[in-house]
């Protein structure tokens, strides 16, 4: 509104006969701005980011980031060849899943189920009990490298997800590549993604949630289309998976909830959005950001008890 009014005030008025008419015209234009037309247009356009079109340069950057991230996280993955830190717990839980032995753990089941699947594929029989830190994997014949490969791959995929999120937020390719490179070489993320720990799956699904949410925002100008629904549903599924790895993932709910609430608040000022349309927006966000994650969370507990 300010820009349009400033431009209206700055327009030159012709001298001589008829000088009053343009002035009246400008006054009418200013009145139209204050009546809410320009305000509505500004409120409708301000929160949105232009839809991101992936080009060949983006594909090259993604491929390079994936390759570098895999090298960083998988380099000498076999070392050390012994139980490290909390592998003593989560490796043990994978073995108990395979043996059908009941156990209790304070964390939700998804990440432990993923380690169980990786161990089964690699030939882990569940006999090795991960009883204490320092036990030798090689002597016991445990396919620990394959089980560590799962968090390593998930940690590597977090890097291109950072690139996608940055590009969807409107940043240039070089800025997005820099952000992803910093994620790639961050020491804590590298370390936790090389061990049988819950943190790498949690961080992966957190990054996936934020990337899907960022891409969904780029479709806001075309609400209720197939792409709009698809990215919103993908956000809900990833959100449920993050909460199903560790309860720390629940902090994503207020983060996305505040973003959704701000968006709905802005739509109240948009005169092109009818009350029925606004209710449809609110219901869609509630279903996909609350209902879908809850269903995903309960599904993984059903698998756990099965």
Report on the architecture of this protein.
This is Dolichyl-phosphate-mannose--protein mannosyltransferase 1. Its EC number is 2.4.1.109. Keywords: Glycosyltransferase, Transferase. This protein is mainly alpha-helical and about 300 residues long. It has 14 helices and no strands. α4 packs parallel to α9, α5 packs across α6 (about 110-120) and α12 packs parallel to α14.
Write a concise keyword list for the protein shown above:
EC 2.4.1.109; mainly alpha; 306 residues; Dolichyl-phosphate-mannose--protein mannosyltransferase 1; transferase; 14 helices; 0% strand
- Give the strand tally: 0
Average pLDDT figure: 86
Percent helix, as a range, is 55-70%
What is the radius of gyration computed over CA atoms, rounded to a whole number of angstroms? Answer: 26 Å
- β-strand amount: under 5%
Determine the number of helices (DSSP H or I, runs of at least 4 residues): 14
Regions with little confidence, pLDDT below 50 for 5+ residues: 1-46
* Backbone shape: globular
How far is it from the N-terminal to the C-terminal residue, by CA?
A: 60 Å
- The sequence of SSEs as H and E is HHHHHHHHHHHHHH
Largest sheet: none
Q: Structural class per helix/strand content?
A: mainly alpha
Keywords: Glycosyltransferase, Transferase
Enzyme class: transferase
EC number: 2.4.1.109
Protein name: Dolichyl-phosphate-mannose--protein mannosyltransferase 1
